[in-house]
Structures are given as structure tokens and as C-alpha cells.
Specification:
This protein is of the alpha/beta class and 471 residues long. The protein is 34% helix and 17% strand. The chain has 18 helices and 17 strands. The strands form 3 sheets. It has a 13-stranded parallel β-sheet, with no helix packed on it. Strands 3-6 form a two-stranded antiparallel sheet. Helix 4 packs across helix 6, helix 9 packs parallel to helix 10 and helix 11 runs parallel beside helix 12. The longest helix is centred in the C-terminal third of the chain and has 16 residues. The radius of gyration is 30 Å and the shape is globular. The protein starts with a helix and ends with a helix. About 6% of the residues have low confidence.
Length: 471
């Protein structure tokens, strides 16, 4: 049935093609040998590889990856030619079949294949995106430490990629810490590489970074200090976006990036371990437009005197996600550096109360405020700040349970009527309770989760009561 549908679709596609193109391609004598050996009822055998590639390129990616590649060996080969993005799961596939199976890749992720599978199989896996780690419930800790492949194997694999994929635009891999010949080969051969993601970085593994001429997006994951950040700053002067995860730098490293990377527009810092005073280094990022902090247990230990902080003149967006906000002095220093911000987004940050949120009043040109999961902030604290922003146009308040509808003042109601966009769902528990009214649900299982006493349990209950009476 599926084959008949496919043939019908090919007949429809061939009929709707221009006549000159169809006749030229179908009568082409240089069609592949796989076409001549196809069965007579397969209409795709009438099409040349070039024409069939053009038809397959019109299919959506999910159709191209699974159903279309299972039709025949010819379709499998042609679908591989159209594949542009791939996440590698087995490192041995890189050495033997990857260049032949997918010769036109431009986006390659080697990270999942860079870890050795455990010798024994476990029934529980911890999965994050395309990476899975085995769990052993009988050990402490239960998460088994992932074992990566040797650095020599990583460098050899990168050299194979450099020879076979010169058109590569994005690469995600482990950073070889012993030998850097693989990264040098990628930099010399893949001149169009624009996005690079390196995991397990150290200061020494960033030495080849200066050879990447056209690199625009860089993600560094690992214990990189000011030495590595300085190497990065002097080597990647065309960076537009930089993401640092687990970085151990300080003011010197951040200021070096600001001085050298004049085109940097977006800086993302995740779970950092930087020394005190790094916030002041942001003032050297003259073209920075977006600052995003993710999963930071502390923003800065000691930002230093306020007169030495400076500011980012081009900053437009400040976003804090899953950060712990405890120190008012640090929170105030952050907004002093980003006082020109027009968009403030705070998502699931712990400790944001009225006193801390008052520091955001330093920013006077805010047009967008988004609060999600700020359960300590009250209606009065929110109102005191948003009424002081004359340019506010968009307001998003979600899951802020301390903000109550009945506490909204007339001035705040008047502000709501002038906004271009308003998403107001502060008390999610109240909304859920209203939606469940009259359904009988949400009453601690009174309707659906009544305990059912089995006959055997009833006899045991009576026996226990009789024994207690005898005693």
C-alpha cells in the first residue's frame, strides 16, 4: 500500500514538472546503474539522480530522514546527499562510513559519541538532550562518571572531518587537551566554520582558537581561567556571540574580551565560578546588546565600589534565568552596569523580593518586563517600579504567587490599559482552582482516589481487633 502511494505521488510530481525538464532528465543516458536495475513498476527508476534529488529536496526533513531513506539503496544514498545536520552516537562510524554516507554535512555534533559506553548495561539512564548517562542505584553517587575517549582519538577524528567536510559551518566536540593538531586541521581546512562548541576546555586547549578566522559563535564549557579568556579574546576578534559555562575567570578575562572583541553583541554566562569583581569588566564591552546569566549560584561575590563600575552603553536586554539573587548590593551593581537596558527578563530566580527588585528602578528606559516564577515579589513592590518607567510597553507576569489581583491599584489598572502587550497570570494556583470548580477534582482524591479495602485486608482488620479485645 505504501509503495502504491509513493508511485502515485511520483507520477503526480513528474506530470507537474516542466515538459522540457522532464523529457531531458528521463531520457538521460547517464542515469545510474541502480536506476537500470530497478523494478519495472517503480516509477522513480524513470528519473535520473539529479531530478530525483530535486524532488527529494522538496520533502520535509522528518520525511527525508526516515521513510524516504528506507525505500531502496538508491534512495538511501540520495537522502544522505541531502543531509546537512547530524548528531553522531558511535565514534567508530566517523572513521569508516560517515564521509561516504553523509558527504555534504554542514552541522556536526560529536559530543554524544565522545563518551565510552559502560561495560555492563543498566536499566536507568539520565538523559539530557542527546546525551545519556547510566545510573547505578547500588553505588554512591548513583551517577557514573562518564569516561571520554582518548584525546588522540578525538584529534584523529577531527583530522578526518577536516579532510572530508571543508564546507562545515557548525561543530560541537570535546576539546583535545593533550594534542591540538585536530583543531588546527579544522581551522585550516574549514574556512566557512562560523559556530564552534568546545566541551571540557582548559586554558591550553584554547591555543588553536586564534586560527579560526571566520568564527562568530563560540561556546566554551570547562574550567577556563583568565589565561584562556585572554587567548580567546586576542584570537577571536570577530565573535558576535560568546557563551561561557563553568568559567573560572575574573575581571581581567572579561575586560580583555571587551577590549578585543569589538563586534561582540551577546554574552551568555552559565554556572560560573568567577572571582569577585567580574561585573565591572562588562563596561569594556562597548557593543554588547544582550547579557544572559543562567544557573548562577551567585552573580558576584564583591562587585567593588560603585564609582568604578561603569556601564554598557549599547546594552538592550538583560536576562536572568535560574539564578540565586541574595545580595542587594550585587543586584544593584548589575543594573548599574546595564542601566541602558530596554528589556528585563527574570525567570525562576530565587530570592527576588521587593527590596531587591527596587534596584531595577535604576534602568529608566525599560520597554519590556517579564517575570516568571518570582514567588516572593509582592504587588506593591512590582507597582512601585513599573509606575516609574514611562516607556513601558510590554508586561509579562506569570507564576508570581505573591502578586494578587485584588491588590491592584487604580494607577496600575490605568497603566494596563496603555500597554501594547499584557500577559497577566500571577497566581497560577488560583487559576487552576477556579478551572476545577464544579468538576469534583482537586479535593485530595475524594472522588477518584478512594481507598479500596480488599476482602483479605478486611479479615485481617477484624482479626486484629479481636486479638486486641482479648488482651
Amino acid at each position: 500500500m505504501q509503495n502504491h502511494r509513493l508511485n502515485a505521488w511520483l507520477k503526480h510530481a513528474a506530470v507537474n514538472m516542466p515538459e522540457t525538464l522532464t523529457l531531458t532528465k528521463t531520457l538521460d543516458s547517464s542515469s545510474s546503474s541502480s536506476t537500470s536495475s530497478a523494478s519495472s513498476d517503480d516509477l522513480s527508476s524513470l528519473l535520473s539522480d539529479e531530478l530525483l534529488l530535486r524532488i527529494l529536496s522538496l520533502l520535509p526533513p522528518q520525511t527525508l530522514l526516515s521513510p524516504a531513506s528506507l525505500v531502496s539503496r538508491r534512495w538511501l544514498y540520495l537522502a544522505g546527499l541531502l543531509r546537512r545536520s547530524l548528531t553522531l552516537l558511535d565514534w567508530s562510524f566517523l572513521h569508516h562510513r560517515l564521509p561516504i554516507r553523509f558527504p555534504n554535512l554542514t552541522d556536526l555534533d560529536l559530543l554524544p559519541a565522545s563518551f565510552i559506553s559502560p561495560l555492563y548495561q543498566t536499566s536507568v539512564l539520565l538523559t539530557n538532550s542527546s546525551l545519556s548517562l547510566p545510573l547505578d542505584l547500588y553505588t554512591d553517587p548513583v551517577i557514573l562518571s562518564p569516561v571520554s575517549i582518548p584525546c588522540e582519538s578525538v584529534s584523529l577524528g577531527l583530522e578526518i572531518i577536516s579532510r572530508n567536510f571543508p564546507q562545515l559551518r557548525r561543530l560541537c566536540t570535546l576539546a583535545p587537551t593533550v594534542t591540538d593538531s585536530g583543531l588546527f586541521a579544522i581551522a585550516n581546512s574549514c574556512n566557512t566554520l562560523q559556530q564552534l562548541e568546545l566541551h571540557g576546555c582548559t586554558d591550553l586547549s584554547l591555543r588553536p582558537i586564534s586560527v579560526f578566522e571566520n568564527l562568530q559563535i563560540l561556546k566554551i564549557v570547562g574550567s577556563v581561567t583568565d589565561i584562556g579568556l585572554t587567548i580567546l579574546a586576542h584570537g577571536c576578534k570577530r565573535l558576535v556571540q560568546l557563551q561561557l559555562q563553568g568559567c573560572e575567570g575574573s575581571y581581567d578575562g572579561i575586560s580583555a574580551i571587551g577590549r578585543c572583541c569589538a563586534m561582540l553583541e551577546e554574552l551568555i554566562i552559565s554556572d560560573h565560578k568567577m572571582d569577585a569583581g567580574w561585573i565591572a569588566g562588562l563596561a569594556y564591552c562597548g557593543n554588547l546588546k544582550s547579557l544572559k546569566l543562567q544557573g548562577c549560584r551567585r552573580i558576584d561575590a564583591d562587585p567593588g565600589p560603585e564609582e568604578h563600575l561603569g556601564s554598557c552603553p549599547a546594552i538592550e536586554r538583560v536576562q536572568l534565568q535560574r539564578c540565586q539573587i541574595r545580595d542587594k548590593r550585587v543586584f544593584k551593581a548589575l543594573f548599574m552596569v546595564c542601566e541602558s537596558a530596554r528589556e528585563i527578563v527574570i525567570d525562576n530566580c530565587w530570592g527576588l523580593d521587593d527590596d531587591l527588585f527596587a534596584s531595577a528602578g535604576i534602568c529608566r528606559r525599560v520597554k519590556l518586563l517579564s517575570l516568571d516564577g518570582c514567588s516572593v515579589l509582592s504587588t506593591q513592590g512590582l507597582e512601585a517600579i513599573i509606575l516609574s518607567w514611562p516607556d513601558l510597553e510590554r508586561l509579562i507576569v506569570i507564576a508570581c504567587n505573591a502578586v494578587k489581583d485584588e491588590e491592584i491599584s487604580p494607577a496600575m489598572s490605568g497603566l494596563f490599559s496603555t500597554l501594547k502587550e499584557l500577559k497577566w497570570r500571577p497566581d497560577c494556583k488560583e487559576i487552576l482552582q477556579r478551572s476545577l470548580d464544579g468538576t469534583g477534582m482537586g479535593k485530595k482524591g475524594g472522588r477518584f482516589f478512594k481507598r479500596r479495602i480488599l476482602p483479605g485486608q478486611q479479615r485481617m482488620k477484624y482479626k486484629f481487633e479481636e486479638e486486641s479485645l482479648v488482651n
